[in-house]
Amino acid sequence: MFTLAKREVFEQEIKRSRFLAIALPVADEEAAKDFIARESYSDANHNCWAWRMGQNYRFNDDGEPSGTAGKPILQAIDGLELDNVVVLVTRWFGGILLGSGGLIRAYGGTAALCLRASELVELIPTQTSFIRAHFSELALIKARLAGVEHLTIASEDFHNTGADLRLEIPSHQKDAVLRMLTDITAGRIQIADKAEDLSF
């Protein structure tokens, strides 16, 4: 799965109607709704949109015939295997009716061209783990973690004897990473799924 690296804009004219697509990577449904509210044009005839976040998706035809705008936009998102993405396609009517087939091609095509022009970023599924380590082992642990691709240290909280690290570990590497940390600390490291489960 992929998402967009940044906001992308694409515009084209089809039979005198102007179509403007704006695509954006989003973290959640609230961000998608904010984007749609902020980027919709009040002077346009239609502001049609779709978004996908994992299994959750929504689309809206905004007054176009049912199934001719929002759904083709969603199909453009899914066709490129994108996730955490919202696309808004705005239409200013040019006086020529496009018919259902023409609308589907116009909205879906404008969205697809916008998305194809975008720089994509691969989405790596991660899982969260918390570790507690002594100061004496912290440098070694961080050096080893730096060598794990796509792993991030999301937070670091220091206390009297060491630090608690919140790790975002690529799902397919979680077991191997935690085993490696146990091995290099001879089992002195604490590992938990929740921060509150850590204690010395």
Explain what this protein looks like in three dimensions.
InterPro entries: EFG_III/V (IPR035647), Impact (IPR023582), Impact_N (IPR001498), Impact_N_sf (IPR036956), Ribosomal_Su5_D2-typ_SF (IPR020568), UPF0029_Impact_CS (IPR020569). This is Putative YigZ family protein. Residues 15-114 form the Impact N-terminal domain. GO terms for molecular function: guanyl ribonucleotide binding; ribonucleoside triphosphate phosphatase activity. One of its GO terms (biological process) is regulation of translational initiation. By secondary structure, this protein is of the alpha+beta class. The chain has two domains: 2-122, Ribosomal Protein S5, domain 2 (2-Layer Sandwich); 126-197, Alpha-Beta Plaits (2-Layer Sandwich). The chain is 31% helix and 36% strand. Strand 2 (8-14) and strand 3 (17-25) form a beta hairpin. Helix 2 (70-79) runs parallel beside helix 3 (99-116). The radius of gyration is 23 Å and the shape is elongated. The mean pLDDT is 94.
Give a quick summary of the entry.
The chain is of the alpha+beta class and 200 residues long. The protein contains 5 helices and 11 strands. Pfam families: Impact_N.
**Number of beta-strand segments:** 11
Q: What distance separates the N and C termini?
A: 40 Å
Question: What share of the residues does DSSP label as strand, in percent?
Answer: 35-45%
| Helix residue percentage | 25-40%
Strand order, largest beta sheet: 2-3-6-4-5
Domain module count: 2
Helix- and strand-based class? alpha+beta
| Form type | elongated
